[in-house]
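Regression test attached.
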Amino acid sequence: MKKLSYVIALILSLGIGNLCLAVDIIPQPQIVKDLDGTFSFAKGMQISAPQEFADEAEVLANMFEVSSGYTLEVTSKAKKAQVVFVHDAKLGSDLGDEGYVLEVKKDQVVIKAAKPAGAFYAIQSIKQMLPVEVAGYYPTPNVEMTIPCVYIEDAPRFGWRGYMLDCSRYFASVDRIKKHLDLMALYKLNTFQWHFTDYQGWRMQVMKYPKLTKVGSTRAQTIIYQRGRKLYANQTPENGFYTQEQIKDIVAYAEKLHITVVPEIDIPAHSIAAIAAYPELSCTGKPAEVKESNHGGMSNVFCPGKDSTFEFVQNVLLEVFELFPSKIIHIGGDEVNKDGWKACPHCKKRMEDEHLKDYDELQSYFIQRVEKFVNKHGRTIIGWDEILDGGLAENAMVMSWRGEEGGVAAAKMKHPVVMTPNQFLYFDYVQSEDRENEPYVSFKQVLPIDRVYNYDPTPEVLTKDEREYIVGVQANMWANFVVSPTHFEYMTYPRMCALAEIGWTAVDKKNYDGFVGKLEKQYKRFDELHVAYRRHDK
Ligand code: ACM
Ligand code: ZN
């Protein structure tokens, strides 16, 4: 079966595929009916679109500009446009805000959706059926922009289809982030979690606390090379942060791609970069340093005993609210070493005043107090599954990373859950057992692409009603060992394609052999887009 799909993919890649173009969309749409014939986009064609879909129509109209050298005309009047967008509000009750119907006939393409996101995803399906050159950087005027005739009815399985990038440990440039966002959109992912505070650097400009980026985003050494879980550095200082203007630019760019940017301010632990800038945030107030490792132990944690800690967190969050329209704000909450709290008079007093019986309850106090502030500003918190310890905050969403247990517990408590269990969705894990031949080795765990693909985020231990609280799935690209933009890409692609099918495609429509066959075209696309990736057929 696997072999057969390779052969089909090979035939297509050799260009014999025009006889029978394949619908090789990732994620696999829910309903696909092959029709006879093909449709070719060409200069002079018109797109008609109602006002609701004017922006989406422009996306399609401009798709051929670089490759084919023309843009299509968008009009709301054309009687016989070759591409027609139809606003169908009723479709929303069946297919939701992100669903669409796409009908490709020999003489016309019809896109129906209730909301712009659905129309946008129809365009992504068209883009995927087109030759890979359409999304490339070069003029390829001789490539026919042809797609197969087909009827597609499609809608996602989950509302949260996420990808997280750790830009604290490895600072990704604005352009590199946009490149990831483009590919996320192509694969119909809709949530970008931006992890930009951690031990290794504070990357978000905060006007009220300039030292966060002046001090907290600089390390004494630059990491230049990684091999066998070892990092090699030279003595050049390394720094980088995102200005508020750059953040706004990324958020706006993502919005056009129907991607929500969820910022993560990781507190109370993973905070040594902030503490290096403002030592008074920790229990001891001792000076700290930003380094390339997870270090600091109990001194990388904020002091929940001091009111000034909350004042700081709230002021930072006020700027977060200004920059990020996301309803959901990630506040971290993971891996808190509570030993520092045990020796702290401020923490001791807080526990007495608030009648907290242990340090888990002190952590819960911290998260709950932050949650109240976030809720007051009309937003919701999400945190790593450690926020369950000591009592879950009233309205919190939970991101389950230490396996599924935290997610299961939260779903049973009727809290929304995003599943991102490390053993299935940590993209920093090495991609094959053959570690010697992998260019990048990080932690000891191995995560091959079939293991990602076959993951189902709704655990059987949950009842049908409880499963409703699993709102989605996310992969996390941690950068503890990342040394270059291509390293990020190599670990991400094509495992992101497998993530996309978990998040979008109904379980009974998934098929691993078919997926591997479809990857062949993605490899060509990645070559075209200069994306580093790992092949998974060898
Ligand atoms: C995590 O991996 N510490 C969320
Ligand atoms: Zn303290």
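Expected vs. actual: identical. Confidence is low (pLDDT under 50) at residues 9-19.
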